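Give me the fold.
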Amino acid sequence: MPQSLFGQTQANIPPAESYFHQGAQQFIYNNLEAAISAVETGLERYPNDLKLQSLYEQLKEQQQQQQDQDSQDEQDNGDQNEENSEQNSEQQENEENSEQNEQNSENDDQSQSQDEQAPDDLDPSERAQAEELKDLSKEEAQKILQALAQKEKELLKEFKKAKTKGGKTHEKDW
């Protein structure tokens, strides 16, 4: 009886080589455990097969690299968590210090405003604004001016767009 072509190729492949191919295929599919298992099974039957031995060594090295990488990742995550907790504690300290500084500056502002009398021609809201402006640094003032300039540019663009959308079309009257 004639055998099928598939049956002939299966009969011609030595079993050790089939374990090798099975292990290699599992490795390609990122299934390292299954690849090692297939190669170990092949080595149990064919302990002297050089291809299986070589593949087994390479798979074990790959497994060791993955384990090293995993432990390094865990260590990095632990270090990062420590850094985050340190940063959080520093941030809390900074917030507490800034709150105390704000309270101190408010107290100082109140005492200064009582010592210095504002001109009589300003109403209370204008006095408050004037006191706030005194506390601004040059950098803060520049940032405010830049923000206002940017806002003005945006408003001009919107105005021009509205003008062109609502503009008249020039059609012939005749």
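The chain is about 80% helix and 0% strand.
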